[in-house]
Design a protein that fits this description.
single chain, alpha/beta, 9-stranded mixed beta sheet, 6-stranded parallel beta sheet, NAD, Gfo/Idh/MocA family oxidoreductase
Length: 374
């Protein structure tokens, strides 16, 4: 075998980080870029030395493409991914997998019938930080995991994004924009979610653009801009998550897992590396004893990796005949959990999650993205 041919559909801002990283992985080669705006595809192809460019249809038809990477807007994810499957290509898609359960389930069914694979972001789960944290938990560093707390709270992307309206529209909000990172991490650690209870609110019905050529213009807020979610897992574990675009206090990337023999803080699930540290219980306190606890830092590999790592794992997993980590099934279950949270916030009722997912595998030991293995 040799490097697997990759075609990318959608060459917006996020395509830069994919192209930078994929060009450093010997096992994949980007052979064509496609976009609705062909001139934009041409500019990116010239910038990164990709030999061909065109439309999405040109990517699907390219004989050298084995894997299509779908970087289109969320509303187009299912349509583009299904077209790639119909053309006989494996698919890696940015998050979320889709915006509708039935459409996402149809995508996975069509891929399975065709003998093709679907992978879904986020692939931060494959980063050395999260992988080391998972191994520490599975080695028993905190005993049996009981519950988790996660926090993402910011003033909102309208503070810095020149065109933020889509992030407050149906299919987005902090729930579907940031939720996939946190709930993919939680499902990877605790297993499938059984049910959720959620509450949502909006700080404002209308928000203002603060930067760029449209500064001063307003746009409607279509979905809750703050969500609080309690999840109960099949394993008996529980989690409490805050996702907010309404907080003056900027605080994000917080993931704390608490177990029977200690607690662990793990890296921001939107990053590929970060701090891992464990604290043990205080034990019995007697007169004069200190309440201070000592954090034990867990050292781990800090390889410089980024977006595209999930696609690389998928092509290697196909060659090796093993499951890939950031699978379409995981993406579907996380989507189901998040849509269930939206339904709970709307109805005021606890919602039973309809889907399940098999345990998420760890990366093989010694996985080196910069090695040539095919």
């Amino acid at each position: 075998m040799s490097a697997v041919g990759v075609g990318i559909v959608g060459v917006g801002v996020i395509s830069d980080t994919y192209l930078q990283n994929l060009s450093s992985f010997p096992d994949v080669e980007v052979v064509i870029l496609g976009d609705l705006l062909v001139d934009r595809a041409r500019e990116q192809a010239e910038k990164y030395g990709v030999p061909a460019y065109g439309t999405a249809e040109d990517v699907f038809a390219h004989p050298g493409v084995d894997l299509v990477i779908n970087l289109t807007i969320p509303a187009a994810h299912i349509e583009v991914s299904r077209a790639a499957i119909a053309a006989g290509k494996h698919v890696w898609t940015e998050k979320p997998l889709g915006l509708d359960r039935d459409a996402a389930a149809l995508l996975l069914s069509e891929a399975d019938a065709a003998g093709l694979r679907v992978g879904s972001a986020p692939d931060t789960l494959l980063g050395p930080g999260f992988q080391a944290a998972r191994r520490a938990i599975e080695e028993g560093r905190i005993g049996r995991p009981l519950f988790a707390q996660t926090v993402f709270q910011t003033q909102g992307p309208d503070l810095w994004h020149p065109n933020p309206a889509f992030l407050f529209a149906e299919g987005a909000g902090p729930l579907l924009d940031m939720g996939p990172y946190y709930f993919s991490a939680l499902v990877s650690l605790f297993g499938a979610v059984d049910r959720v209870s959620a509450f949502g609110t909006k700080a404002n019905e209308v928000r203002r653009i603060h930067t760029g050529p449209n500064a001063g213009e307003t746009f409607p807020v279509e979905v809750p801009s703050t969500m609080q979610i309690i999840a109960a897992f099949d394993s008996g574990a529980q989690s409490q998550s805050l996702l907010s675009f309404d907080s003056a206090l900027e605080r994000h990337g917080i993931v704390e897992i608490h177990g029977t023999e200690g607690s662990i803080v793990i890296p921001d699930p939107n990053q590929f590396a970060g701090r891992i540290a464990v604290v043990a219980p205080l034990g019995v306190l007697r007169d004069g004893m200190s309440f201070e606890q000592t954090w034990i830092e867990i050292e781990h590999d800090e390889l410089e990796v980024g977006r595209g790592l999930g696609a690389l794992d998928m092509v290697r997993a196909i060659a090796e005949g093993r499951p890939h980590v950031a699978s379409g099934e995981l993406g579907f279950h996380v989507l189901d959990v998040l849509l269930s949270a939206a339904e709970s916030a709307s109805s005021g009722e606890t919602v039973k999650v309809r889907s399940t997912v098999a345990p998420v595998p760890l990366l093989p030991e010694g996985f080196d993205p910069f090695a040539s293995t095919l």
